[in-house]
Specification:
alpha/beta; Rossmann fold; six-stranded mixed beta sheet; three-stranded antiparallel beta sheet; about 25% helix; globular; binds inosinic acid; binds magnesium ion
Amino acid sequence: MNEDIRDILIEEEQIQKRVKELGKQLSEEYAGKRVIIVCLLKGAVYFACDLSRAMSIPVRMEFMVASSYGDGTTTSGSVAVRLDVHDDIAGMHVLLVDDIIDTGLTFERVKTLLETKKPASIKTVAMCDKKDRRQNGLDADYVGFTIPDEFVVGYGLDYAGDYRNLPYIGVLKPNVYART
Ligand code: IMP
Ligand code: MG
């Protein structure tokens, strides 16, 4: 285990098992539809790649960058879209994928923007859900794991850009925050 991690919250095997389940469920529910995953960079990249490979139906990939966090662990409250989708998504079924839903502001902002592009539908998929922290009542349509209100890293989730490539999801030791 990485020396900066206090506890592992979700083991690698649990993540891979859950991703396969979600992939199977989405393949059944979206069979026969034109599906495009819109992956929110950078955090959702590991999850979106694994999820798309767990799907047995054709699926396209697009990428967006939306940021609300600085290098801290709480949201700034305003979400800026720094990179928009490139392909035309009109008439397509969008799966908007993020690493985690926290306040819900990122999904709300990005969904509003994507709706203007006239897709056939938009559903949200979050690897982790910190339900207790929601500020806008918005729920993700598909959730990997509901987790407690703790700052987590790994499997795409970062602290100040680090720890994304850990294969598990874990909680940082408090002294790591104190360093910055
Ligand atoms: P929201 O807009 O508050 O729902 O936050 C979503 C974004 O906040 C995610 O895309 C993450 O980048 C970031 N975030 C929220 N909680 C955590 C966490 O525990 N660890 C790492 N990033 C987080
Ligand atoms: Mg993020």
